[in-house]
Structure formats: C-alpha cells, structure tokens
Amino acid sequence: MKMIVGLGNIGKKYENTRHNVGFSVVEELANRYSVKFDQEKFEALIATTFVNGEKVLLVKPTTFMNDSGRAVGPLMNYFNIALEDIIIVHDDMDMEMGRIRLRQKGSAGGHNGIKSIIAHVHGQDFKRIKVGIDHPQQMTVVNWVLSRFSGDERPVMQTAFDHACDALEYWLAGNTFMNTMNRYN
C-alpha cells in the first residue's frame, strides 16, 4: 500500500494559496484517477484508488499545516504503511516558483508541517516532492504563503502540479524512487 499526502490548510479561506500546493497536487492526481476525497479518517480526507493492483491512499490532512503529523502518523499505523511507501507533497519557499524537487528523505528544512510529520512518524525517511513557491520579496512569510497566485503565476504552477503528478504516476507504475528522481528532478 502507498500513501501520498498533500499538505495544506483546510477551508475556503486557504484554497489555492501558496501553502496549499500539496493539496493542489493530490487533487490533480485524484482527478487523473477519477476518485474523490469521500472518506474521513484520523483528521484527514482520503481518496482511494488502485494502481497495478496496489491500494493507494491520497490524503489531505484536515489539521492545520503545522499539525499535519497528527493525521499522517495514525493513518500510517492504522493501514500499516511502511515509511518508505509514503510521499509527502509540500511547498518550498527556497525553490524557484514552479520547480519541483523529489527527495528520498531529509530534515524538515524549517517547514513546520514536515517537522510535525517527523515527530509523529518517528523518522525522516519518507519521500517528498517539494513544489517551489519562491521567497517573499516585500511581504512577511505568513502573508506570502497564505496569498494566492497571480494570473501570470497560475499557468507556471499548473505546469508544476502536472509535473509532480507525472512523477507520482511514474513511481506508482512500479519504478524505483531513485529512477523517478533521476527522471523528474
């Protein structure tokens, strides 16, 4: 079983904000597989599909971003999912807008959602797809991550979401994550 978790903040107020790019990616992937987030369990919305005979959970935590681990840890334990079968999709301010970067594991890098997940799963050996949102130039970090993309930025970000979904589908098709990183980084 695999679990792909998109990080974001739940609610209309936060829809389509920079901080919610993880939600955008898993929603796009759910559209590709024609599944809906119709199950709620352990503070998360879940869409379920099967790829190559393997069950895949697409997850949007309903906690705030900084408490994402409260959903991820219990889901991992309940479904008995190995850490190496989890991918977390999240925003990254230290990357150029629209770039994606896949990583095998690593530290939180200052991302509070990732810090929470590391604390709740007791390790950092889970895969990540980081989606670049740039660093704010003339506003606070909080205002930046909670702002929406401009008209010029939207197509750039849609390309990033598509690219991230392509990478996820490639991995789900049975390719190693190392091969997926080599192809999509």
UniProtKB/TrEMBL annotation:
Site (Stabilizes the basic form of H active site to accept a proton): 91
EC number of this enzyme: 3.1.1.29
Site entry (Discriminates between blocked and unblocked aminoacyl-tRNA), positions: 9
Cellular compartment(s): Cytoplasm
Keyword Transcription: no
One Gene Ontology MF term: hydrolase activity
Binding annotation for tRNA: 14, 64, 66, 112
Pfam families documented for this protein: Pept_tRNA_hydro
List of catalytic residues: 19
Reactions mediated catalytically: an N-acyl-L-alpha-aminoacyl-tRNA + H2O = an N-acyl-L-amino acid + a tRNA + H(+)
Coarse class of the protein's main subcellular location: cytoplasm
UniProt keyword RNA-binding, yes or no: yes
Record key words, sorted: Cytoplasm, Hydrolase, RNA-binding, tRNA-binding
Gene3D superfamilies: Peptidyl-tRNA hydrolase (3.40.50.1470)
NCBIfam families: pth (TIGR00447)
Sequence similarity: Belongs to the PTH family.
Annotated function: Hydrolyzes ribosome-free peptidyl-tRNAs (with 1 or more amino acids incorporated), which drop off the ribosome during protein synthesis, or as a result of ribosome stalling.
Subunit architecture: Monomer.
Protein name: Peptidyl-tRNA hydrolase
Organism per entry: Ligilactobacillus pabuli
